Amino acid sequence: MPKTFLYCILLFAVIACTGKEGNNVADYNTTPLPQSIVLLPNNPPFILDESTMITYHASASEAVKTSAGLLAGYISENTGYIPTTTSDSLGHKHIILATELQDTNPEAYHISVNDKNIIINGASDKAISRAIQTLRRSIPATGDRTFIFPAAEITDYPLYSHRGASLDVARHFFPTEFVKKYIDLLALSNLNVFHWHLTDDQGWRIEINKYPELTRVGSKRDKTIIGRHTETYRNETHGGYYTQEEIKEVVRYASDRGITVIPEIDIPGHTLAVLASYPHLGCTGDPYKVATGWGIFKDVLCVGNEDSFHFLEDVLEEVAPLFPGPYIHIGGDECLKDRWLACPKCQARVRQLGMKDNPEHTVGEQLQSYFIKRVEKTVNRLGKKIIGWDEILEGGIAPGATIMSWRGTEGGLIAARKGHDVIMTPERYVYLDYFQAPDVDNEPFTFGWLTELSRTWSFDPMPDNLETDKQKHILGAQVNLWSEYMPTEKNVEYMLLPRMTAVAENLWNPGDKDYNDFVSRAYKLSKRWDRMDARNCKWAYGVRDSILTDSANREVRVYLSTFDNAPIYYTLNGDEPDRMAVRYEKDKPITIYTDVTLKAVVIREGEPSDIFSKTFHHHKALACPVTLTYQPDPRYTFAGSSILTDGQQGARTSYRSGTWLGFLGNDMEATIDMKEPTTVSTISLGTYINPRGGLYPPRKVIVSVSSDGQSYREIHNEPLDLPLSEIAPATINISLKQIEEVRFLRVQAESIGTLPPDHDRAGSKAHLMIDEIIVQ
Ligand code: TNX
After folding, report:
1. DSSP string of 259-273, one letter each residue
2. Is the separation of the CB atoms in 581 and 612 below 8 Å?
3. Which residue has the higher pLDDT, 231 or 664?
4. What percent of the chain has pLDDT above 70?
5. What average pLDDT does the chain have?
6. CB-based contacts of 299: which residues, under 8 Å, 6+ apart?
7. Residue 433 CA, closest ligand 1 atom number
8. Does ligand 1 lie within 6 Å of residue 266's CB atom?
9. In the annotation, is 270 catalytic?
10. Is the CB of 447 under 6 A from ligand 1?
11. What are the DSSP E strand ranges found in 459-595?
12. CA nearest ligand 1 atom 8, residue
């Protein structure tokens, strides 16, 4: 009998015993994807069962022994029994942990699976940490007691050495137990850095013995803003901090999983919590309050006061020994210079150092650079290196600083060219406080922009134009999780997952970049997250749409798909679709002829996906081409002018998710080609109002018509006075004096131009947001 046949029978027998076909076969195609998986179908598999032991060499390090214990725990998560861990090689089936692999990459490992053993051989203790997570991910989250590991040789190593995720515990505090869970989620995706954002305007979260007020006063705020740019607050104290013992416990927990913790003490801006505790450290010495809203504040540490530096020396002396890693992150972002420029002590510093504005750097920037350079000396004296946000390039970068490039990748590129190490964290790709599903009105409220999984996944940390000899400075990347809009642990998990794993995969092994293949592996991992009670966004596994606007036929056509061609069912009458609804035929568009709400669902493995829902308005300008006289703000251009006649109204919750077109300081003047003479009696247009955010409605709307596209006749011209109270969309309805026959329709919405004198940013340009010009 051929051997393969025998193994098939063996596999079949095991499957028959467990009663679940294929559910208990380990699958090495996980995310991140190992560099090389060679399956050996002619060899018998390894059967994981209660007789399996985890073995290491008698001389193994404590770290390897810890990994053995963790692996036993991961196996018990699935099977309900805890394998014995031992340095004794007796018994018949082992998972063996060894660190004998010769490889220059300290995280490289090899896994060899045969019927007797799974042999994990790593280049270091850290490599063992990665290998056991790869095994953990390979086990389907079914809760079986026996698992079959197909015979294989797996060779693996990461491409980048910094694979991180941050957690902002200042805007919202999360207890130690949750921080550990967060670290466990990073470990599962083979990340190796946890960046702990411990201080900000809204709270100081680390116990400093020499400065007890930092936690007594600075760790609490008496209320918290609700929503964005509002005046409403939840009148409840929010606070919390970690004792130094708790910090050590978290650092140990991370280190057991091969993860380095980078603490961030954010200075000299983002320091209202410090100033509330020790007001003499501010320029004005005012009584300060821990911030209760989000944003950037003018009060910062005084650069003219030597006490600021003594304070930071003392704080860093307590911080440094708690974190065995090589870095302390000192922030450096978003420091406004207003106070420094008005403060006598800071001005004395300017004179002392002979600073003058120069074409490269303002005095304010030079002061910031001076501040950071002094703090760098302290950090270096304590045996560590600094990391700072890309603003620390302004005014001259500190000599040994590593840059975290967040406002794009440009800062990182400049720093790498100057020979500095760089960690890429460009906000438009890896900021996880942005929406991840386009249906923003049905998502947890957050910051505004939309960063879908596919966009995060598309991010490559290596700038295209960076010279080869400088590429070594790009250490890697990380996702950043700012918690302004994440009051609960479930919010944090949801925003983290699955986007974190897209970055984890790109940094480990970008492979051949097949998005659907990545999604299929993320989908498998989502089942493990579910089992870990980690809330995760399932949008990417649901219905995807692609909308085609056919201006010749004034039609909108909708195509639906999924990552794996699982069946889609839909309704057009607003009913919740299920298996009884119409089944979508692949590549056949759904044409929009009337006002409809399209709802669709994927049924996969018997389970319905999240419901996809989109409402289309059928109107006379639907899909008609639009020409804009003034270009929109590039940040609010998205798909361009076609947004205005795509049949979909701008989202309620966010004007930044791609459904609104935004004009900065300009009017909106749209000329719509109706394609043929068309009778028109009413026109409506939506605008988004958010005065504090700088969004004002038009003060006037003018409508003109033309039959040749050359000469226009004005048919409506009226001032508007919309109420500015609510942050929300508003609709402007225009009924024409008489029904017109129109070929070309021009709609002008006049912007207020600049923000009014009573505005925080008086004199800056105002935004005018417009969406859907509905013509009937
Ligand atoms: C900018 S990123 C910040 C944070 C905010 C974040 C919100 C950075 C260095 N500063 O303080 O939380 O935007 O997305």
Report:
1. -EEEEEEEESSS-HH
2. no
3. 664
4. 97
5. 95
6. 271, 272, 275, 282, 283, 284, 286, 288, 339
7. 14
8. no
9. yes
10. yes
11. 474-479, 544-550, 555-561, 568-571, 582-583, 590-592
12. 333
- Asked if residue 431 has its Cβ within 6 Å of ligand 1, the reply is yes
| Catalytic residue, candidates 334, 439, 555, 740 | 334
Cα-Cα-Cα-Cα dihedral of 37, 40, 44, 45, to 10°?
A: 10
Give the DSSP H/E element, type plus range, for residue 528. helix 515-531
Q: Is 715 helix (H, G, I), strand (E, B) or coil?
A: strand
Taking alpha carbons only, the member of 178, 241, 217 closest to residue 481 is 178
Cα 691 to Cα 276: distance, rounded to the nearest angstrom: 29
Check if the beta carbon of residue 107 is closer than 8 Å to that of residue 127.
yes
Segment 265-293, tens digit of pLDDT: 999 999 999 999 999 999 999 999 999 99
| Centre of ligand 1 from the C-alpha of residue 484, in Å | 9
Residue nearest atom 10 in ligand 1 by C-alpha distance:
333
Q: How high is the pLDDT of residue 121?
A: 98
CB count, 10 Å around CB of 168? 26
Examine the residue annotation and report whether 585 is marked as an active-site residue of this protein. no
Residue count (the chain): 776
Query: What is the separation of C-alpha 465 from the centre of its chain, rounded to a whole number of angstroms?
Result: 25
CA-closest residue to ligand 1 atom 13: 482
Q: Is 371 in the pocket of ligand 1 (CB under 6 A)?
A: no
Minimal CA–CA distance to 529: which of 559, 555, 499, 565?
Answer: 499
Token pair of 582 as six digits: 């119409």
Given 94, 110, 270, 420, which residue is catalytic?
Answer: 270
Pocket lining: 297 vs ligand 1, CB cutoff 6 Å = no
Indicate if ligand 1 lies below 6 Å from the C-beta of 744. Answer: no
Task: Report d(CA 500, CA 495) in Å as an integer.
Answer: 9
Q: Which amino acid, one-letter code, is at 308?
A: S
Structure tokens at 383: 């045996």
pTM over 0.90? The answer is yes
> Count of CB atoms within 10 A of residue 354's CB?
6
Q: Which atom of ligand 1 is nearest to the CA of 391?
A: 9
Distance in Å, CA 163 to ligand 1 centroid: 19
CA-CA-CA-CA dihedral for 495, 162, 257, 529, to nearest 10: 20
CA of 294 to the centre of ligand 1 (A): 10
pLDDT digits (tens, 9 = 90+) for 234-266: 999 999 999 999 999 999 999 999 999 999 999
Does any ligand 1 atom lie closer than 6 A to the CB of residue 406?
yes
- Ligand 1 centroid – CA 334 distance (Å): 8
Phi and psi of 84, rounded to 5°? Answer: -70, 140
389 CB near ligand 1 (under 6 Å): yes
Site to probe by mutation for ligand 1, drawn from 294, 409, 482, 484 as the one with most ligand atoms within 8 Å of Cβ, is 482
Mean pLDDT of 565-575: 97
Q: How confident is the model at residue 379 (pLDDT cuts 50, 70, 90)?
A: very high
Annotated catalytic residue 264: no
In eight-state DSSP terms, residue 213 is H
For residue 296, the ligand 1 atom closest to its alpha carbon is: 11
b (16+ CB within 10 A) / e for 595-632: ebebbbbbbbeeeebbbbbbebbbbbbbbbbbebeeeb
Ligand 1 atom closest to Cα of residue 389: 9
Q: Which residues contact 9 (CB under 8 A, 6 or more apart)?
A: none
